[in-house]
Design goal:
Elements (H helix, E strand, L loop, with lengths): L11 E2 L2 E2 L5 E2 L3 H19 L16 E11 L19 H11 L2 E9 L2 H6 L10 H15 L9 H5 L2 E5 L5 H6 L5 E6 L4 H10 L22 E5 L2 H6 L2 H4 L10 E5 L8 H11 L6 E7 L3 H13 L6 E6 L7 E8 L8
Parallel strand pairs: 6-7, 6-9, 7-8, 9-10
Antiparallel strand pairs: 1-2, 3-11, 4-5, 10-12, 11-12
Helix pairs in contact: 1-11
Length: 343
């Protein structure tokens, strides 16, 4: 029996499309309990690893080659870029066999990412100089939908194509490399010490993307011109006066603010929340938060703080399940103008 008391999610929040299964987060304790109970039960049922500690891929290598499965065949599309219709797909046994062989070949995207393993061990608090599972898993999940033109995907392809994306705590810049070809402008940010590494990775991978489905056959994805790597320190933003904060952040407002695997240390939660709240333009900016579930108390503190930003109901937070495999939580945040009480 359906839960008649469950709030029906709106179909869209900016560039983000909420699935019908999305649930409104009202109580942080309840959300965290459900998330961690689900991981434990799934581990017991299918033997999966569940929690996996820190979550970096390989912190011992200077360079990682990451292969992302885009999940659809290279030659399945017709000359006009569309999938063959049902009538075309049944013309002759020989054609069926050819198509069958084509469907066995899935397109992949290979990204080469430089890491700074020395900084990871020598620079206090530096976790962004290596690649983490959450960024790779999220990139692959988004790319599979974008390349297949999934109409009900997490990101609306048409709106995303004209969006300004700001990513917080980008680390090596792997997400910018993967997703920037699909959007108008991508601002990738982290602390000052990591900006040279991000720029190095963006430049190195500038023309390695296969053609985007939205571009003419044979075309290459945009080079680095639509990516800006800039320093953005959450602590500086929190400590700065409102009159000075605008000097510390990108001048163009964000249509999508992405925070992927940045919730791990309690001391960073207040400045992160201040940064999210300041960069979010009411009724325009969708906030997409992906967190690998590690310390339960840290995740709870972040959620409580996020919901606490909204005493008059300006913020709403939705929980998304089933988008990624693994020990993850995904939340979509939307901020209404202060005079509007959200439903």
């Amino acid at each position: 029996m359906a839960d008649e008391s469950r709030e029906v999610p709106p179909p869209q929040r900016g560039v983000v499309q909420l699935p019908a299964s999305a649930t409104r987060v009202i109580d942080a304790d309840e959300e965290v309990f459900l998330l961690y109970t689900n991981i434990v039960s799934r581990k017991a049922a299918d033997g999966s690893r569940g929690f996996r500690g820190l979550g970096h891929i390989n912190s011992h290598e200077d360079t990682l080659t990451i292969t992302l499965d885009l999940g659809f065949p290279k030659k399945i599309r017709g000359d006009n870029g569309d999938f063959p219709d049902k009538e075309q797909s049944t013309r002759g046994a020989h054609q069926k066999k050819v198509r069958s062989r084509r469907r066995e070949t899935e397109q992949t995207l290979e990204i080469e990412i430089f890491q700074d393993k020395t900084a990871l061990r020598s620079r206090k608090g530096d976790t962004g100089s290596v690649v983490w599972h959450a960024s790779v898993d999220f990139a692959e999940a988004v790319l599979r939908q974008l390349y297949s033109r999934e109409p009900a995907g997490l990101l609306n392809p048409a709106l995303f194509a004209n969006a300004h994306v700001i990513e917080l705590g980008a680390g090596t810049g792997v997400l910018a490399v993967a997703l920037a070809p699909f959007t108008r402008h991508y601002t990738v940010t982290d602390i000052e010490d990591l900006i040279p590494l991000i720029r190095k990775n963006v430049a190195h991978n500038a023309r390695n993307h296969p053609a985007s489905p939205s571009k003419p056959r044979g075309s290459l994805s945009p080079p680095t011109s639509n990516i800006a790597a800039v320093a953005l320190d959450w602590i500086e933003i929190r400590q700065a006066s409102l009159a000075l904060r605008h000097k510390l952040v990108p001048s163009e407002p964000a249509d999508l603010l992405m925070v992927v695997d940045c919730i791990y240390h309690p001391s960073l939660i207040p400045p992160l929340l201040s940064t999210i709240d300041y960069l979010t333009v009411p009724d325009r900016t969708a906030v997409l938060v992906v967190v690998e579930l590690r310390a339960e108390d840290v995740v709870r503190e972040f959620l409580q703080g996020w919901l606490g930003l909204s005493p008059a109901g300006e913020w709403e937070v939705w929980s998304i399940s089933g988008f990624m495999e693994g020990p993850y939580a995904i939340w979509v945040g939307w901020k209404h103008t202060s005079h509007r009480q959200c439903p």
